[in-house]
Amino acid sequence: EPEVTQTPSHQVTQMGQEVILRCVPISNHLYFYWYRQILGQKVEFLVSFYNNEISEKSEIFDDQFSVERPDGSNFTLKIRSTKLEDSAMYFCAGTGDSYEQYFGPGTRLTVT
Amino acid sequence: AQSVTQPDIHITVSEGASLELRCNYSYGATPYLFWYVQSPGQGLQLLLKYFSGDTLVQGIKGFEAEFKRSQSSFNLRKPSVHWSDAAEYFCAVGARGGSNYKLTFGKGTLLTVNP
Questions:
Q1: Contact (CB<8Å) A48/B102
Q2: For residue B5, how many other CB atoms are within 10 A of its CB?
């Protein structure tokens, strides 16, 4: 069964550094999402992406965040200048014709 | 705006006992409804979903959930819990209208299973 993959599984970075989190969605998916989960809290929607454009974003997704699909297979989330409060698990997800959202295993981001 | 309430933060049951995890949602119409399970340090696994049709839906691992429109609820049930079911369970809703929708999650219910 096809899976969503994410790399790296764990990223440690210093405050103020830029990070790029990578996702490879299922090949026939058309809609892509990023969510985050701060430790011990609920999963929160960040952004949805379709046809190379952001279709919806949350108030969390400020100017420090950006997404792109650079090569038709990868889907990336960039944080330009990380803050301590960006430490969280970041999940990529995608949907296709079946309406189910399939999640990747997540990237744990630790900002020190 | 859509929202999800999971009133129970932590539930403990004995292995073999029945289980019901509660979920209530707020949405202007009937949303898409989901239950996900998360083991410590792991990703989110879809247990079951409701889009339309039969209000009792079957999922993986012997779980089922019932959509009750009048109560805005989508409670998760399992007749006999196994130790391997210990995990955190999240209810989620999505705005109806196609394949492009954001999920709004509840805060989760942590399930502990006693031997």
A1: yes
A2: 14
By CB atoms closer than 10 A (0-12, 13-18, 19+), residue B2 is middle
Compute the distance between CA of residue A23 and CA of residue A72 in angstroms, rounded to an integer. Answer: 11
Query: Phi first, then psi: what are they for A73, rounded to 5°?
Result: -125, -45
Contacts of B108 in chain A (CB under 8 A): 42
Query: What digits encode the pLDDT tens for the residues B71-98?
Result: 999 999 999 999 999 999 999 999 877 7
Q: What is the pLDDT of residue B92?
A: 96
Q: Are strands A5-7 and A19-24 parallel, antiparallel or unpaired?
A: antiparallel
**Res. B41 pLDDT band, cuts 50 70 90:** confident
Q: What is the β-pairing status of strands B109-114 and B10-14?
A: parallel
**pLDDT for position B107:** 94
Nearest by CB: B43 against A41, A91, A100: A91
Nearest chain A Cα distance for residue B105, angstroms: 6
3-class secondary structure, B98 = coil
Neighbours of A101 (CB within 10 A): 28
Q: Among B12-16, B18-22, B44-48, where is mean pLDDT lowest?
A: B44-48
Closest CB to A99 among B42, B92, B99: B99
Contact A56 B102 (CB under 8 A): yes
Q: Given pLDDT bands bounded at 50, 70 and 90, which one contains residue A1?
A: confident
